[in-house]
Write a structure and sequence with these properties.
Layout (H helix, E strand, L loop, with lengths): L1 E2 L21 E2 L6 E3 L3 E10 L6 E15 L2 E8 L7 E4 H15 L6
Antiparallel strand pairs: 1-2, 3-5, 4-5, 5-6, 6-7
This protein binds zinc ion.
Length: 111
Amino acid sequence: MAHRNPADLPDSSTACPVWCNGEHEAMEGAPLAHHSDGIVVAGVERVIRDGQSTHTAAVVEITVGLEQVHDETWVWLGTDRPGYRPTILSIESAKRLLRQVSHLIEPTEPR
Ligand SMILES: [Zn+2]
């Protein structure tokens, strides 16, 4: 785990975005990545157990945050379930997803 200070790098485009938490974990040779703190949202998830036809509801923590690599900003979100890999979306994809979910839940909301 390496913590690199963007001020030590020659490229001024590596300046931290305002939401960067200042932790720049990167493997040697990997591009500098800026990360926000994760925002934790308590949720309930439907879980279907292997071999069972019924589902249960499970409490889950959903964490969402921002990451910037090569001047591209991404939205990542994931749960605290073991083995779950986060979903990483472009900013525009995340906005479209939010609009569509809002419209599905509240059809009066604009798409
Ligand atoms: Zn940063």
